[in-house]
Amino acid sequence: MSFEAVIGLEVHAQLRTQTKLFCGCSTRFGDAPNTNVCPVCLGLPGALPVPNEAVIDLAVRAALALECRVNPVSVFARKNYFYPDLAKGYQISQFELPLNEHGRLAIEVDGERKEAGITRIHVEEDAAKNLHGVGGETLVDFNRAGVPLIEIVGDPDLRSGAEAEAYLRSLRDILMAVGVNDGNLEAGSFRCDANVSIRPVGSEILGTRVELKNINSFRFVRKAIEFEIARQKALVSSGGVVEQETRSWSEAEGRTKSMRGKEEAHDYRYFPDPDLPPIRIDDEHVERIRRDLPELPAETRARWQQLGLTEQDARVLTGHPELARYVDAGVALLGPERAKALANFVQSEVLRHVTTHGLRADVPVPIAHLAQLIELTLDDTINGKIAKEVFAKMVESGEPPRDIIDRDGLAQVTDTAAIEAVVQEVIDGHPAQLAQYRGGKTAVLGFFVGQVMKATRGQANPKLVQETLKRLLAEP
Ligand code: ADP
Ligand code: MG
Ligand code: ZN
After folding, report:
1. Per-residue pLDDT tens for 308-337?
2. Distance in angstroms (rounded) separating the CA atoms of residues 59 and 15
3. Closest listed residue to residue 324, CA positions, set 339, 337, 335, 338
4. Which residues approach ligand 1 with their CB closer than 6 A?
5. Interval between CA 315 and ligand 2 midpoint (Å)
6. Residue 262 host element (H or E)
């Protein structure tokens, strides 16, 4: 029997607010343990939560970007369980009436597009963090307790590790583009659980699923899912059954491992939180948030492809919202007909100098300088090879290209007589290659071009060099 894999992802994304979901404590990452806490987020008895309105707006923003329906009334619920990082004994989440439902996300794998459904997006608070092995003890840091999250629950529409990875990347790009999440996997502000099952091809019934917990890299998620699919197929093919359980990924061993089985499955006994009124949002408010949405990465890509960028160019350059803004600023300066030249140069030269930290990106050269460099290349003041050299100097010194070109005398030699003189010299110096060329081996033209460029320190206009060489080489 042949099987197909079924995968559904649950993503927890931290919303970018200054303060926590139900109190005024700061959400800053990396502060000293237990410095951003108060009776509410410590879960002290009698402390009352007050919802942060900014959280709801960000959650709606995310939902609209993912084409969800926003429910006019939604309800906070208590999810009851015991764990040291949950002092109240319950997490405030949403259950029966989540804020948003029925969205979708477009993904593409190997040139094939498909849409994956989004079941729901609800708002919840983060738990505290257990710090293991501090002087031989486990301590709890409550700075993260009460930090606002959205949980994005995906339909079981994915069929491979590659699709799951594409889904996560696309989801992160969108959340970052609309500014609700900083996409930082290492800091834990974007976390993913993957549910994986298999079923006979053609079956509509879902198989028993395994949940892969908290894998903090897209590549590892993909590997963990691929391993898990293979493990389940082998198990079932040899007469076994898949147990419902939670497994973790061991990168060192390259396999998933059981963390806990079904017998430890929770019964959360959800019920509406009596301390929090239902959230009511009217259409007008939703429409206001919709009007404020920036362009989404897919829209940016479509617009750029109209300007002659390839799909690959567009994908790379929308890889970070700040990079996309940088490119757009360049297009505005250079004009749409030069967008492709800009895109090429950014990818071949600029990108490797760009560093990103969450939503921040550091590009080493101001866009006005880069646009000037592209212009000087396109109007033949310098050739492409020199442009790369000038760019390296721009990164180093921060100077505009014009200054560097003038100071270092890098402008292109377009003087026909000067080029002719160099060409003649090179031909005279290589009689053997000349004979080869005239004997029909025209491929040695490349050799001559190289010699002339070397003699002019790369500054000759390559087109002129080619033309002049062909003319002088042909003469008997
Ligand atoms: P829970 O909240 O207990 O984890 P849900 O029913 O809400 O359970 O499912 C959570 C996620 O698991 C969803 O993303 C869903 O698509 C996925 N899922 C559910 N059943 C399966 C299955 N049999 N195989 C793969 N994924 C599944
Ligand atoms: Mg789950
Ligand atoms: Zn607090």
Report:
1. 999 999 999 999 999 999 999 999 999 999
2. 7
3. 339
4. 6-10, 153-156, 195-197, 206-207, 209
5. 31
6. none
